[in-house]
Every structure is written in structure tokens, then in C-alpha cells.
Design brief:
The structure is a homotetramer. The first copy, chain A, is α+β, with helices and mostly antiparallel strands. The first copy, chain A, has a single domain, classed as 2-Layer Sandwich (Gyrase A, domain 2). Chain A has three helices and four strands. The N and C termini of chain A lie far apart (about 45 Å). At the A-B interface, helix 2 and helix 3 of A face helix 2 and helix 3 of B.
Chain lengths: ~100, ~100, ~100, ~100
């Protein structure tokens, strides 16, 4: 995996797989909505650990249960595979943390 | 909710609901097994936030993907409602974080 | 401590003590700069624990080593003592995490 | 840096530099004492981020403000450079988080 800047058509193709993400001012963006701060920050911690592992970090804003994310790669001033991987991980972690509570 | 020490029969009744927990040397204990450190520490962070909220903290040991927990209430040298609540929260967070990965 | 909306003069007085904070669009704001993501997220985790303890949460944006914070109290649409307390804690945690590395 | 098992004399030499660590049952061990859970878990989060970056994780037990750490490298059943690096980082993070509170 390298930090090569992806072409417009590569990004378009990636957005086909990353259904909840969109391109905003050149960055891969998604707003996550959680039930509370605990879910939001639990999600953020798992992302933070992956970010250190990849040495690639998100731009993100947290307000209570929402986390607004913008991904791009500063070095190439564009989107790279690292952004796609981080986006995919975020989708998985968000689904996990939002798991419905058990009944009763 | 108070920090009253629960009686043996109250604890026994609680253990009926907390299926994965057992009493070990007077403490409520469970070993959680996760797939990796990311899951384990994501779980621990959610528990840490609840612990600060309740002002009641676990004794726990983490080795990579396992988290061994002992709960009791130091002030009363026994089990209280705080331990039952923390145990219940841990069960919910552990189920959420271990959610199966999406296929494909 | 209550969630009473502070008056303009009370806020002005508080800003005298919180030297690095300013009022921006009605919110108490500060930009923290750390050396790396590790410092920034270590700081954020300590703040998150206090936030759960106070049941009062920040609005914040993190980009690698910077954390931009806006504090206000949604319920009263203004600044309260909770915001002042959270700001003071953030100052302490930021100073601690940025402590110079030992020489050699 | 490799995961080569260090010799007894290499470990002895390293312990000369890591003044607060000792060898216990073949593992590099230290007990950290913090003022409260917030400090302890803030410390743990910074260590967790480094652990993911190094892909090398501690064995650790947390009880409120104490964190008892054992470091070794499972693959070689001994101490490696990874353990020394993690120990050094822990010392730096612990010093930072325990920084005295400002007067007044």
C-alpha cells in the first residue's frame, strides 16, 4: 500500500463501496450519529488506535453523540488508499458500537 | 442507589441474571476474550467512561485481547449495587464490540 | 454548582483567569497545540473522563496534534460554571501532557 | 530493531538505565502510582496508542490509581528491544501525567 494520490475515477469507484461517505471539498466525509458520548468516544478510541497503527490520522469533530469526519492525505493533498482503509474501519467500528441494546 | 453491602442471597440472585460472572474471593469476576487489542481497549475505554460517571471503578488486567475483571466495593468490603451495574454495562459493551465483522 | 447562565460581566471576569481562552460566537474557545497525535488524544481521553463525570461535554475538533475546543451549555444557550470548570481542567491536562521530554 | 531475545547481560545493562523497573519471573515489571483513575487511564491510553504503533502490547493491571505492568515478548519467551522501548515510553508518559498541579 502506498500514499499515491488516487485519480478521480478511482475515488468514484471507492465511493461506490463506501455507501455512507461523500466527497466534500476534496475530502472523504461522513457524519456518524451515536446514542451518547460514551458510544461516540468508544468509537473514537478504536479509530485512534488504528490511526496510530497506520500512521494516518483523521480530521474529526465531536459534539456529544456525533462525530463528523474528514479524511484526506496531507502529503499528497488528495485521497489515498490510507483514507479508504480508515473509512472502512470506521464503518465497521461504528456498526459495532451502535449495536442494539439487549431487550429487558 | 446506595453503597450498601449486599447479602449473600442478594448476590446469589444477581448472579442468576449475570450469567457469565462468578464470585471469586468475594469479588464479582469475569474474563472477557476479544479478537485483538483494539477491541479490548475500545471496550475498556467505554467502561472507563461509565466508571467515572458512577465514581466506581473496576480492578482489571488486560493482556492483548483478554480483560480479566474483578468488581467489589472497597468502602464496604463487599459487593454493592454499583458492582452489579458496572457488570451489566460491561456485558453490553463486550457484546457490542465483539459484533461479527460484515461478510465480504 | 448549577447550570445557571452566567452574565456578561461574570464571563468577562472568568476570562481574566482563563488566560488562553476567548469568547467566540458565544462559546468559550481555545486551540490547543500538541507535539503529536499521541499527546492530543491522551489529553482528549482525560477530558472525556471528566466530561462523563460532570455530565457536561465539549464541542471539539482534532487534527493530528491540534485540538480546537468550544464550550457552552446547550440547555441555557450560554456559558455556565460547568464550562468554566471544564476549561480549567483542560488547561491543567494540556500543561501536563506537554511536559518537556527528559534530556538524553 | 528486531525481536531478538536479549541476553541476561543485555537485560542487566538495560535495567541500569530503567531505574524503576525490575525483572520479575522473567518479565520487566514496574508499578506506577497515580493520584486517581483519570491520571491512570490517561496514561494507559497514551501507552495503548504506542503499543498499536509498535504492535507490541503490555500485560497490565489497573486498580483505580495504580497500574502494575509486566513486559515481555511472547514470541521469543523473553525480553526484547520492544519491551525496553515500551518501558521507556511508559516512564515518560507517567512523569508527564503526574506533573504537579499548578498552585492556586
Amino acid at each position: 500500500m502506498d500514499r499515491r494520490r488516487l485519480s478521480d475515477s478511482e475515488i468514484k469507484s471507492a465511493l461506490g463501496r463506501l455507501a455512507n461517505w461523500e466527497l466534500k471539498e476534496g475530502k472523504l466525509s461522513r457524519k456518524f450519529r451515536f446514542r451518547d458520548f460514551n458510544e461516540a468516544f468508544g468509537f473514537m478510541t478504536r479509530v485512534a488506535l488504528v490511526a496510530e497503527n497506520l500512521r494516518h490520522h483523521p480530521e474529526w469533530t465531536n459534539i456529544y453523540g456525533t462525530v463528523l469526519v474528514h479524511l484526506w492525505t496531507h502529503e499528497v493533498q488528495g485521497i489515498t488508499d490510507y483514507d479508504l482503509i480508515l473509512a472502512g474501519k470506521m464503518d465497521v467500528f461504528a456498526e459495532a458500537v451502535k449495536r442494539p441494546l439487549p431487550v429487558g
